[in-house]
Amino acid sequence: MEPTRLAGVALFEGLTQEEFASCAARFQEVEVLSDHNVARDGDGACAFFLVLDGELDVHVNFECVATLRPGDFFGEMGLENNAQRSAHVATRGRVQLAKNMVWDHKQMVDEFPVVHERITSIAAARSSGDS
Known about the structure:
By secondary structure, this protein is an alpha+beta fold. It starts with 16 loop residues before the first helix and ends with a helix. The protein contains four helices and six strands, in the order H-E-E-E-E-E-H-E-H-H.
């Protein structure tokens, strides 16, 4: 993926241009149509997603608990815990996502611990209801 598509995403702040380009290379850009289910509660987790454009709703137990916007991410909890998806995520209109498959995600967070720390910190705040 072109690094310019990930410009301004807080997860990558402070990385050198080379490090940033290495992270960007591990993503592919995907367009998802309106009212599409990107992740379903209970499904196996195989990818991490960053929102590039558009909005998605996150549902837990049939209740909308969050709306994701550009710069937000999802899918980390299932990858971190080698578990099933814990939420249902659906698009609101057409959405552009950066998709990082599990093996690319693992390489990225192993190589760049600061990115991993940011992901886990945000995920922990999300889980505790702080965000």
